[in-house]
Amino acid sequence: MAPSEVELILARQLADGLAVPVLLVDGRGDTVFFNEPAEVLFGRRFDEVDALPFEARTALLAPRYADGSPLTIEQLPGMRAMRERRPAHVAFHMHGLDGVLRPVEATAIPLESARGHVLGAFVVLWAQEAAARVPPGAA
Amino acid sequence: MKITVWGSRGSIASAGPETVRYGGNTACVSVESDDAICILDAGSGLRRAGLVFTGDARPIHLLLTHLHMDHIQGLGFFRPLFESGRTIHLWGPPSTTQDLRTRLTRYLSPPLFPVRIRDFGADVELHDAPVESWLADGFEIHAAALIHPGPTLGYRISAGGRSVAYLSDHEPALGGPLIRTRWISGFDLAVRADVLFHDGQYTTDEYRQRVGWGHSSVEQAVAFADLAGAARLVLFHHEPDHDDTMVDDMLEQARSARQNGSADAAREGLVIDL
Ligand SMILES: [Zn+2]
Ligand SMILES: [Zn+2]
Questions:
Q1: Which of residues 92-151 of B touch A (CB under 8 A)?
Q2: How many CB pairs under 8 A join A and B?
Q3: Which of A9, A13, A33, A50 is most worth mutating to test chain B (most B CB atoms within 10 A of its CB)?
């Protein structure tokens, strides 16, 4: 597989050290990394997903609306952020490791290099239960 | 391809009896063919290169990795820039905020320097290094962004089936452990290069104190070279506080650690014929 752009390498390293779930997509919208906190939300370990072909991986990770229908590729937060070149916030549902379908929100930030190319997106995810764990007054 | 080291030091020139063997001048390496001259970085070593290349009719391509002072300080003292009627191509890292000319002019204008770029006798053509590889008078050049503070490039120059990679200021370890090649900064530039100039500024202990400063330990340079399968590693960007004996010791460490290639330490006057 082709080496990643340096900005994606640094974003991955940052995501790896964060306690919030983070997903990293490349310029074509492929999921190139998610961290351990995100593994809980996706119900998959990154290493098992990483080995899958693009289509299989994308289908497996597909977020869904509450009625179970999947979001289209264009509706995915990372794709929107890259297309519009601004942060995108999207709410959806996902099946977790525990099989429970839970509401999730995601904010995606486009990663634009100093050369002016959109290289991917840094997607931070919030599950409702995780948000509820934040101690009151800890703003 | 003839490779010559004109400056091997990092950060600041450090001339003195204790650095006389490896040299005190900052980053500058030339790569010549019969048809053209590529010069990697314009550190203080560029001055001597200019004395040799003055009057040489071959086109010159100056490739800047980034605009830290130790990589541009020699520019104003490069004689061919003052030869009228000559064209010199200057390539550097692109930025969306300010173009190369604007950023270079911060140094090449009063009060920091008496002469402006437009007053050089030669015709200086500035180019943003493109994302795709390009051809420059018979050399194929590939530039890629590296982990180092500010927009910074590494280069790979190929001709006649041979290639030299130049990653003078580079801290790949900041991107995570040097294990999975896909996640290693600069990796594609160095893959199976015949010669790899790589940042080897620090000892392992020094690196621990300077994580995030943009440079590598010898241990990391060796790991990077082995993973990339680069045949000959040339340690570069020597720490200004390291004397010749210290660099000798670091080179010895690199030689014993290398698993699939040789190691060397850049010294002024070193010539490699490829
Ligand atoms: Zn430097
Ligand atoms: Zn630097």
A1: 93-96, 128, 131, 144-147, 151
A2: 53
A3: A9
Within B54-148, where are the H helices?
69-72, 100-105
Nearest CA-CA distance, residue A112 and chain B, Å: 10
Measure the CA angle with vertex B42, ends B38 and B43; round to 5°. 135
Cα A27–chain centre separation: 13
Q: Which helix (H) or strand (E) holds A103?
A: strand A101-112
**10 Å Cβ neighbour count for B261?**
17
Q: What share of chain B is helix, strand, coil (3-state, %, to 5)?
A: 25, 30, 45
SS3 B181: helix
Tell me the nearest-neighbour CA distance from A129 into chain B, angstroms: 30
CATH code of the domain containing B33: 3.60.15.10
Instruction: Give the type of residue at B17.
Output: P
CB proximity list for A120: less than 8 A, separation 6 or greater: A5, A7, A8, A11, A24, A25, A26, A27, A32, A78, A82, A110, A111
Residue of B nearest to A17 (CA): B176
Tokens of B88: 């010199």
What is the distance between the alpha carbons of residues B78 and B51, in angstroms, rounded to a whole number?
A: 8
Tens digits of residue pLDDT in B107-162: 888 899 988 888 899 999 999 999 899 999 999 999 999 999 989 999 999 999 99
What is the end-to-end Cα distance of chain B in Å, rounded?
A: 5
Please count the structural domains in chain B: 1
Query: How many angstroms is it from B191 CA to the middle of ligand 2?
Result: 23
Average pLDDT over residues B50-61: 96
A3-133 to CATH, choices 3.40.50.620, 3.90.230.10, 3.40.50.2300, 3.30.450.20: 3.30.450.20
Structural domain including B98 reads 2-273
Encode pLDDT of A80-90 as tens digits: 999 999 999 99
Cβ-defined contact of A114 to B96 (cutoff 8 Å): yes
